[in-house]
Write a structure and sequence with these properties.
alpha/beta; globular
């Protein structure tokens, strides 16, 4: 269940908070949390923060599900973003749909390739899921290698049940390493 809109920081409040962090010496900012690129007028925040890259901020990055990158990759690059993290747990359309519940695999892949062409450095984050994508580990490694993407495998966090027993999907990173 998402927070009511009134309880979510506005873009202006996020900008003030980021500026306070920069004034306190923070050099790197990553915009994340859900899917930041679906926020109305989000590029306004990136453009404002991007101007701080000349004045104390050294890096502005983004974590995204990739669904909006076709639309925003060039604008992100123009605002000063040079690196992005993209969540991608499967290269199989059907598994991707099952994992994300609503995600469009083709849209995400188009977004990733648009971001690559724009010049953004890409790191793929993949949650290793026992019995779901564990047979794709090497495919993901190879695909990222072919595309010059960094890749990070993440253990699933069983934070409560969401219709599936997430604890049953837990795959330790030592198992991922052994597969590779």
């Amino acid at each position: 269940e998402f927070l009511p809109k009134k309880d979510v920081l506005s873009l202006e409040e996020l900008d003030r908070l980021c500026n306070a962090f920069i004034e306190l010496g923070v050099k790197n900012l990553r915009i994340t949390g859900g899917e930041p690129l679906v926020r109305k007028n989000i590029m306004q925040l990136f453009n404002t923060l991007g101007k701080k890259l000349r004045y104390g901020l050294e890096e502005l990055t983004l974590t995204t599900n990739g669904s909006q990158l076709t639309r925003y990759a060039k604008n992100l690059f123009d605002s000063g973003v040079r690196r992005i993290n993209i969540s991608l747990d499967s290269l199989d359309k059907n598994k991707f749909k099952k994992i994300t519940r609503i995600g469009s695999f083709d849209k995400v892949i188009r977004g990733i390739m648009t971001a690559k062409k724009t010049g953004l450095k890409i790191k793929i984050n993949t949650v290793a899921l026992k019995g779901i994508n564990d047979n794709e580990i090497l495919d993901l490694v190879n695909w990222c290698g072919e595309n010059k993407f960094a890749l990070t495998f993440i253990e699933v966090m069983p934070m409560g049940e969401i219709g599936e027993k997430r604890a049953d999907q837990y795959m330790p990173l030592t198992d991922v390493r052994n597969l590779i």
